[in-house]
Amino acid sequence: MCVSHPPSKRGFTLIEVLVALVLVSVLVAGAMGLLAKAAAVIGLARVSTTAALLAMQKVEQLRAAPAVMASGTQQDYFAADSSVSPAASAFFVRRWTVTPGWAATGASSVVVEVLAVGSGRVAEVQAVVGGLP
């Protein structure tokens, strides 16, 4: 006598497993895209922050010695880690312009611009340096 057993309701079919794998693959691919975008944004933020710090550093240097400021435009060069670098291998170019102000106050206008050569991003700081004691 042959007794047939009812089909088991436990477990997953092959189609269900394939659909689950496709869904997981799509989610993982989306997450990887977001992680790549986040890494790029973090890199740009690091460049912008370093550029702003280099600009503020120059303003503070000029504020510390306002008597030795020469009017005109000058520039210097930095590597990606903000160490001084030769012009040929520079990642940042820091350019500052000093414009003499009012003779009565002794103040000068200073504009410092830092350009990140690799990314084309610019940080600019404007300040009034010197003045009455």
Can you offer a commentary on this structure?
By secondary structure, this protein is of the alpha+beta class. It has a single domain, classed as GSPII I/J protein-like (Pantoate--beta-alanine Ligase, Chain: A,domain 2), CATH 3.30.1300. It contains one helix and four strands; from the N terminus they run αββββ. A hairpin with a 5-residue loop joins strand 3 (107-116) and strand 4. The longest helix has 51 residues, at 14-64. The protein starts with 13 loop residues before the first helix and ends with a strand. The mean pLDDT is 82.
Structure at a glance:
The protein is of the alpha+beta class and 133 residues long.
Layout of strands and helices, then pairs:
Layout: H1 14-64, E1 72-78, E2 92-100, E3 107-116, E4 122-130
Antiparallel strand pairs: 1-2, 2-3, 3-4
What is the CATH architecture descriptor? 2-Layer Sandwich
Question: What's the end-to-end separation, in Å?
Answer: 112 Å
What's the CATH H-level superfamily name?
Answer: GSPII I/J protein-like
> Helical residue percent?
25-40%
User: Which regions contain 5 or more consecutive residues with pLDDT less than 50?
Assistant: none
- Write the H/E string, N to C: HEEEE
Radius of gyration: 30 Å
> What share of residues are in beta strands?
25-35%
Which of globular, elongated, flat, extended, rod-shaped describes the shape?
A: rod-shaped
Average of the residue pLDDT scores: 82
**Strand-pairing-aware structural class:** alpha+beta
Strands side by side in the biggest sheet: 1-2-3-4
> What's the helix count?
1
CATH topology: Pantoate--beta-alanine Ligase, Chain: A,domain 2
Q: Major β-sheet, in short?
A: 4 strands, antiparallel
Number of domains: 1
